[in-house]
Design a protein that fits this description.
- With 645 residues, the protein is of the alpha+beta class.
- It is 35% helix and 26% strand.
- It is built from 20 helices and 33 strands.
- An eight-stranded mixed beta sheet has the order 16-20-21-28-25-24-22-23, with helices on both faces.
- Helix 3 crosses helix 4, helix 5 packs antiparallel against helix 6 and helix 8 packs across helix 16.
Length: 645
Amino acid sequence: MINITLPDGAVKACPKGSTPMDVAKTISEGFARNVISAKFNDTVVETTTPLSQDGTLVLYTWRDADGKKAFWHSSAHILAQALEELYPGVKLWVGPAIENGFYYDVDLGDHNISDKDFKTIEDKMLSIAREKHEFRMRAVSKAEALSYYQDKNEYKVALVDKLEDGTITFCDHATFTDLCRGGHIPNTGIVKAVKILSVAGAYYQGNENNKMLTRVYGISFPKQKELTQYLEMLEEAKKRDHRKLGRELELFTFSQKVGQGLPLWLPKGAALRERLEQFLKKAQKKAGYEMVVSPHIGQKELYVTSGHYEKYGADSFQPIQTPKEDEEFLLKPMNCPHHCEIFKHKPFSYRELPKRYAEFGTVYRYEQSGELHGLTRVRGFTQDDAHIFCTPDQLDDEFKNVIDLSLYVLGSLGFENFTAQVSVRDLDNPEKYIGSVENWEKAENAIINAAKEKGLDYVVETGEAAFYGPKLDFMVKDALGRNWQLGTIQVDYNLPERFELTYKGSDNELHRPVMIHRAPFGSMERFIALLLEHTGGNFPLWLIPDQAVVLSVSEKHEKYAEKVLNSLENNEIRALIDNRNETVGKKIREAEMKKIPYMLIVGEQEEADGTISVRKHGGEDLGSIGIEDFKELVNTEINSTLKSF
């Protein structure tokens, strides 16, 4: 017998060789029917894997993220089989599960796939699924794997070449075989609904110097109803696409002459950015931050010292050569090395710490052109960066204060549904990180303790840490149920070491400060993109570029409309006027398109009474009210959403 411990602490005594599905059946037959994946001792296993020792077992259903991952990974296998059968001679590369669905990269040879072929691929996948083929894992030697793919798929041969003998497994289902590490649903029949979403080009190994493969994206569900709901959500997402809304609301644009991934902010967008900056600067000032400014470039040696050149050099713009021999500069990929040098400009005593330096600093990274996407993936972006240099004794309080600031930012902008993610090292890949094990342990413990003390709903994600330290990320769920990473806080013992930063302690000896990196927005570009999609362009009243528009019924009322506008502007209400010779109905429709919160209609009756007829965005009619009453209405709405920090 072996003892299997479940997540709730219950221990099941089972015969040696029992499978995860056998264990599930001891809980209940109904529960077992819903189990689609499992982990044993933190390793992904099949539901049919025999268990030969004591251990901890987690059973997953479709409702679990790991269950969905296994479901979509298995669906990628079904897609691959369908592509091989429909397009003879294609060569498969890789096909992982992603956040929503899966994809497979494939060399189609002389074949082509367009949206006209999607239905054919879906039908083939469903035909395979209905046959309820079991997914079966088997170990193979490296020689066997190479022999299987030799002369027919150079992409798989390259993958096998990187693997060690004794670690290679194949997955079989029906007549299909694929190189795979495992993690599948019990059989193909669990997949009831599929949709091919798109096709795109994808360079082999992500290198634009390599051959362009075809990436086929899809998604699948255990019920047709869930696919229908997902497709409805996608339609809503298209309406909320920040690229579409940014164009319609005249916030930003791009120019091929300026360069890919380099946004140009139009007047309304620039004003919106400025309000966000002032909002955070006001809160930062109360929290004791000092604003600094650093240049857009730095000597290569600066980033060699910080470690950024080693870790990010391949993703940075290439060094800038100057007329001076052997002198090289880089466009700034991060603000933190500059802030380390700012701290180093003079000696500090422990009595002067913490020092909190903040900057809206623009940084540059050479993202691959195929990965650029509106404002969410760009080559030049502005971080609401700050770095706190403190004593080890101050670390706990400082970190919790940054959590408070981050929660204030998210709450003021309507992001109430979030999970905190503690990102720690991958202990199996220490080469990815810099610094001592001792400092990493101290930093990770500091973050976890702060998250506990602040009562955050948090999860720990292994391998997601920055190369110089662990971090706390805020994973926000938007209005469409999508998860985004907004805001980050990081603890760093390593950069102070690399830059030889010191302060004089109470013992008159020199000590290393601890460094906290934080950015509540993350980047202005990405934050505004996600805020656009979350709100559908209906920004909070305190932030939106135009809070009201005055609509005159006819030319006779233009002077009164101007008087109303002047009164609003004198009270710092952002308004504009529409005096065109158009019908009020057309003016209202256009104001609705521009997402303007309040439409103030003025005609003969309003001018006689000294009032305005107020219509809210969306159609609610508030009737005729005095101008002073409207000002109070606006201030009340702003104060209800924008509280003091």
